[in-house]
Amino acid sequence: MKTRYLTLLPLLAAAVLTPLGRAQTPVFAITQEDSTVKFSVKASVEIAGKFDKWDASLTFTSPDVTTGVLDIKAQAASVDTGSGMKDGKLKGKDFFDAQHDPLITFHSTKVVPTGPNTFDIPGTFTIRGVSKSETLSLTVSGEGTGSGEIKGMMAFDRKDYGMNSGIPFIRIANRVEVDVDIHAKRVSGPPLVFKK
Question: Signal peptide position in this chain (predicted)?
Fold first, then answer.
C-alpha cells in the first residue's frame, strides 16, 4: 500500500507545482486597436504604409525581461499605402509576392538590453519566403504599471530579399524601414524585472 502512495507522489507534485510555475510567468496581451506595424522607403514619390491585418505575441519564461520572445506576423496582402496602384505593385511578384508568400514575419531569438528601457532584439525576419537575421531596436515604456508601449525600428535592404525591381518612373532606395508601435497589457503573472 505504501509503495502505491510513493508512486503517486511524483504525479501529485507535478500537478501542484506546474500551475505554480505558470503563475510566476508574466502573460501579456497585445491591444491591436492601439498598435501599428508600418514601413517606409525613400523614393522620388513617397512610399510608406501600414499593414491592416497582423498579429503579434509577447511571451516570457520568467519575470526577467530578457527571457521575452516577440513574434510578429503581417499579411502581405493587407498592405495599405493609401494608393491602390502602389498597393497592387507592392503585393505583386516583384515586391511582397503576397500570392505565393502571404506572411511577413519576425521571430526574436534574443533580448539584449542597451539601456534602462532600450533593447536590441535580434531575430529571424522572413519576407517573400526568404529568411535572414535582422535586429529590431526597441524602447519600452510603462515599466511596473502592468501595461506599456513598445516602439521600435528595423531596417533592411530590400535586394537581400529578392526585391530587385523598381516601379516605372519612380526611383526607390534599397533601405526599407519598419516601425512597430505595440501596446501590451499584463493579464496575469508578476511584473517584469528590468535589469539596470
Answer: 1-23
